[in-house]
Every structure is written in C-alpha cells, then in structure tokens.
Design brief:
The chain contains twelve helices and twelve strands. The chain is an alpha/beta fold. The strands form two sheets. It has a six-stranded parallel sheet with strand order 2-1-3-4-5-11, with helices on both faces. A six-stranded mixed sheet has the order 7-6-8-9-10-12, sandwiched between helices. This is Transcriptional regulator, LacI family.
C-alpha cells in the first residue's frame, strides 16, 4: 500500500508539501499541486481520513440523530439534511434512536469519538445536560433544549388552530385529536394545546388520544380502539400524515365514508399525502427548508457566527379530499 512518502518521492517534493496539499494549508503553486495529485493517482494513494481530520480538527461529518428513519416525516427531513450537507462539503452519519434514551446516549458518545463537526438532534429523550456537555455545535429539531442551543420548529399552535377550525367549519360535531407523545415538553405539543383551546372555545366535544411514535400497524390499532369507544366521531385531527393515513385505512375497513361520515386533517404534508386515496387535507410544514436551515445554522456555529436560537417557520393549510 502506497504511503505519503511514496507520493512525495514520485512527485519530487517533500512529505510536508504533500501534507499541505492534502489538508489545503498554506500556499501551494498549481504546478506543485498537480504533481502531487498526479502522483497520488499513479500510486492509487488514499489519504487516511481519520488522521487528516485529527490534523485539521475537522472531519466534515455531521451526526444526525432521529427517532426512526422509516417514519415518512423523518425520512424526508433526513433526505434534505443530507442533500444540503453534501452541497456544503459535509457527509451525514445517521443514527436511529427509536426514542431509546440509552441508545441515544450511546450514539452521542459515538459521534464525539468519531470527531464529527456538529450534531443535528431530531430525537429527544435525554436530559438537557447530556446535550450541553458534548461541547459540539448542535441544532435541535422541534425541541427547545436550553437557552444556548438553537432549535428549528414550525408554528405548531397556528397549525392546530387551522386544522381544528376547519373540521368545525365543515360541520363536525364530535372531534378527536391523535397526538404524538406528550410526556416530553416539545413545541409539537402546541398542536394538542390548540385543539383543546379551540374545541373548548367553540363548545365542541373533543377527545385526545396520545400515540407513541409507532408503526403504521400500531397506529391502526389505536384508531380501531378510538372508533370502538367513540363510534360517533365525525372529525379527526391527526398529528402526522402517517397517522392520518392509518385513519383512512381503518375507516375504509369499517365502512365509514370520507367525507360524508368522517373528515380528516393530517400534519406535515409528506410527499405521499397527495397520493393517498382520498388525497389528504393536511398542515404543510416546510420540510425541505427545515433541513436546509439546520445545515446553515450548524455551519454558522462551526464558524463562530451568531445564530438565532429560536427559529419558528410558517405553516400552510393544504385542503384536499378528506375534508
């Protein structure tokens, strides 16, 4: 296997010059740079990336921790994060926490050992101190971890208001909201709070069912139980499009007609929301921009620039066939 000394010998330069070319440090003439690259190609020399990252104190790798990459929202978000990271010269190390605090802590330790340049947190199960003690640039998605860590979220309360009011305005008399996990205080819980506030203000019966992050089949079981306990539900606000899709599936199985018997509003506007039959009315989050902004904020932190700690993005109501 070729070494850096072999490259220097073929190129007719010193080992220090080869190192400077590899790490892009100091002035190197174009002619010398070409000789080094030609020698590397001739020898099929592959630089030791770990050694280079230790030398430069920069790995150009970003850690991304999410609950579950198979969940459509996190799949799309991860896709955009990877896309915009790569455009800026970074690669992504993806970690699935499955909302397991032990697993999440292990991933954080692994990312620190692997000299990542920063972490994007899309999963939140640990105490805030676990994040602060990483001494790495961090940006959080949908979680206000501390007054030192920037976070990105959307206007969840307004989204909840729009969704609940739409169902009421469409004539629904008994509503249900299937929320995400409420035990962790996140901005996403404002969707739930908006549902409670609007139904109380309009004097509409409202039922809340809390759903852990689950599979499609798991969500279907929750929906079956909801209809078993409350067969007269005529409007449901789901906290994600995947939950809304499970509602459509169960409603079809039970013979409930959408929109005559049941109206549904989802949340996220994932790419499949417009492909579901019937197409799904939903609250659109700017998922692509969330991914782009996460990379921008992380890089600014790496470069010691000032960043906004609170980044609340607008949402839109996209009305389709389920209402």
């Amino acid at each position: 296997m070729a070494t850096i000394k072999d490259v220097a010998k073929i190129a007719g330069v010193t080992v220090t010059t080869v190192s400077r070319v590899l790490n892009d440090r100091g002035y190197i003439s174009d002619a010398t740079r070409k000789k080094v690259h030609d020698a590397m190609e001739e020898l099929d020399y592959k630089p030791n990336e770990l050694a280079r990252s230790l030398f430069r104190k920069k790995s150009n790798i970003i850690g991304l921790i999410i609950p579950n990459v198979s969940h459509p929202f996190f799949a799309e978000l991860s896709n955009y994060i990877e896309y915009y990271a790569y455009k800026e010269g970074y690669k992504i190390l993806l970690c699935n926490s499955y909302q397991d605090s032990v697993k999440e802590k292990g991933y954080i330790e692994m990312l620190k050992r692997n000299q990542v340049d920063g972490i994007i947190m899309g999963s939140h199960t640990l105490e805030t101190s676990e994040y602060i003690n990483t001494n790495l640039p961090i940006v959080a998605i949908d979680r206000n971890l501390s007054d030192k860590i920037p976070f990105i979220t959307c206007d969840n309360y307004h989204g909840g208001v729009l969704a609940t009011n739409l169902l009421i305005n469409k004539g629904c008399k008994k509503l249900a909201h299937i929320s995400g996990p409420l035990e962790i205080n996140t901005p996403v819980n404002k969707r739930y709070q908006a549902f409670i506030d609007v139904t109380r203000e309009k004097n509409i019966e409202g039922i809340v069912i809390e759903a852990k992050l689950d599979t499609f089949e798991g969500y279907k079981k929750i929906v079956f139980k909801l209809f078993q306990d409350h067969p007269d539900i005529d409007g449901i606000f789901a906290s994600s499009d995947i939950i809304a899709a499970s509602i459509i599936n169960v409603a079809h199985y039970l013979g409930k007609k959408i929109t005559e018997d049941l109206k549904i509003v989802g949340y996220d506007d994932i790419s499949t929301a417009s492909l579901i039959v019937p197409t799904l009315t939903t609250i659109k989050q700017p998922i692509e921009y969330m991914g782009k902004l996460a990379i921008e904020i992380l890089i600014k932190q790496m470069e010691k620039e000032q960043v906004n700690l609170e980044n609340v993005l607008p949402i839109n109501l996209i009305e389709r066939m389920t209402t």
